[in-house]
Design a protein that fits this description.
The protein is mainly alpha-helical. It has one domain. It contains two helices and two strands; from the N terminus they run H-E-E-H. A two-stranded antiparallel ribbon has the order 1-2. The longest helix is centred in the first third of the chain and has 19 residues. 6% of the residues are buried.
């Protein structure tokens, strides 16, 4: 059961990141992710915000 749940999380996570506006090139203009990024002054490489697009 644990493997199924972990697989489901792994399959859904990229979809959810896309819904809030993360793309391979970074946050999509006008998205929730872009609005959040605008409120962060310094985004550090490897931070929880920077990792989804890696």
């Amino acid at each position: 059961m644990g493997r199924i749940a972990l697989g489901a999380v792994g399959a859904v996570t990229p979809l959810l990141l896309g819904v809030v506006g993360f793309s391979a090139a970074g946050p999509v203009a006008g998205s929730i992710a872009a609005g959040f990024q605008a409120g962060i002054v310094n985004i550090v490489a490897g931070s929880s915000f920077a990792r989804p697009r890696a």
